[in-house]
Amino acid sequence: MSSTEQGTSSAAPAEPTTAPESAAAPEVPESFYYVHGKDKVVHKVSAGALQHSALIHGMISNLGYTEEQAKANPFPFENIDGDILQMVVDWCNQHKGKPTPPEDTNLPKQKEKLFDLVLAVNYLEIKELLTYCCKQVAMMVKGKSPEEIREIWMIPTDAEDEAAEKEAKKRAGKEAAGETAAAAGDAK
Amino acid sequence: MSACQLESIPFVPLRHLLKTMSIYNLIELSRTSKLWKEEIQTMQIIQPGGYRITIDEIGSSVEMAKQDCKFYWNRKEKSKLLEYVFGCYRYLNSIFPGGINHLRICPTYISDFEKIPNECQILSIGIASEIYTEWDLESLDNFSNLDILLNHVNFRKGLSLNGPKFLIPENSKMLNIDWLKVENSESLTSSILRKLKNKIINLSGVKFNEKEINEYLWDLKQGNGNEKLQILTIQREDGKWNDDEVIKGLDTYRVGKQVYYLEDYDPLIESEDFLPYHSENRICISDSYEFRRSDEIRCTIEIRYSTIQIFVWNH
């Protein structure tokens, strides 16, 4: 077929057969949700980042939480310290929609923070981050002796365990005796 | 929020944490307190797949079959060495239970045999003779009775008598265990051979002549032999077997290449050379002779220079 038959100049570029991609797939605006910890500081997190947390993802999809509702009522995590929640939010944002690397070197080095992070991540059900945290906690005792492990992880000795058990039994006995006495008083 | 106490960690992350720890670290953790020892036992973090224990003249070791974990000791005073080895095994087995798959021990430890755990799957006694000193070999001249060891240890699947010289105990357990291997069988008589009721037998360095093998095959054919027998390997130290003498009067027929499949193949059988050359449960037999037993079961005899292999197709 010649160009004249088409009624166009031969120099004119051929018409594209498909529409440009930008026109076909308009970008969907990302939705955001809000969370706060013990310190009540509200953190804004994208839905994509929150997918890491099976707990929050389940709350959003099962309860049909909308962005507006979430803005008015941020997800409360009263059992998580503000700085720990900030760490979790940062991690989720950094790893949004990305495959997680085999190691994460940005985890806290202080053991108190790391233990708190383990508890928070376990509660929020963030599997990959939990794996990193557990590896990091395990690294604390790599090559250490039982005495050193006991010190690092604050493990009581058998004698201390036995003493604590005796103490607990004694306390329970006293409490039971107190309750019986109170019940007898009530009966009078 | 938390103190850094390990016991503050809930079950799921704790299990996760313990799984990321090396076996050596878990062992150290189990030694911190009774509570953590019990915790590691209960959680069954590691599956050792059984243990292999070696106690010989060069060194001794305890290793896990399915984990990259091995403890070893160099030559030490014998009684102390046994304490270390079995102390180590008993501790490991208490936190990662698996039992002993294979126990290899030198006969020179005879005076300490009662210290040995009394249960294993395969028991091997002795190693290659070049390992032993002259003194060791001399001490074995007075070594009369392996029964102490064989009576003490309940070996469930196999027994391997590896030398350094002829070691034949007068023990009924040897005659009845499923897998038997005897190195240095020069003093093994044909009457002992007839008493063997094992499934897999490997005898090296035998001094039998063709007539004795022929008589054994006659018994087998007439249904008076070892009914459990699946594979028997008999190897001479030197010299070729005379095929005609071995099969004389048995009314055999020639068969070409075929494959023998071992019944109930157990990978533990690989711990020692109980079987002839094979690939898992497959054993290739080249040109051979066959006869049928009185109960119509086929018996194949493969003769290759100094080795005779007898396969009974009783499955």
Automatic annotation (TrEMBL), chain A:
The keyword ATP-binding does not apply. The keyword Transport does not apply. Residues 1-25, 160-188 are annotated as: Disordered. GO terms for biological process: protein ubiquitination; ubiquitin-dependent protein catabolic process. SMART domains: Skp1. InterPro entries: SKP1, SKP1-like, SKP1-like_dim_sf, SKP1/BTB/POZ_sf, Skp1_comp_dimer, Skp1_comp_POZ. Residues 8-25, 178-188 have a biased composition (Low complexity). Signal peptide: none annotated. Residues 38-96 form the SKP1 component POZ domain. Residues 127-170 form the SKP1 component dimerisation domain. Transmembrane segments: none annotated. Residues 165-177 have a biased composition (Basic and acidic residues). Gene3D superfamilies: Potassium Channel Kv1.1, Chain A (3.30.710.10). Pathway: Protein modification; protein ubiquitination. SUPFAM superfamilies: POZ domain (SSF54695), Skp1 dimerisation domain-like (SSF81382). Keywords: Ubl conjugation pathway. Probable essential component of SCF (SKP1-CUL1-F-box protein) E3 ubiquitin-protein ligase complexes, which mediate the ubiquitination and subsequent proteasomal degradation of target proteins. Regulates cell proliferation during embryonic and larval development. This is Skp1-related protein. The lineage of its organism: Eukaryota, Metazoa, Ecdysozoa, Nematoda, Chromadorea.
UniProtKB/TrEMBL annotation, chain B:
PANTHER family: F-BOX DOMAIN-CONTAINING PROTEIN, F-BOX-CONTAINING HYPOTHETICAL PROTEIN C.ELEGANS. InterPro entries: F-box_dom. Residues 7-41 form the F-box domain. This is F-box domain-containing protein. It holds the Pfam family F-box.
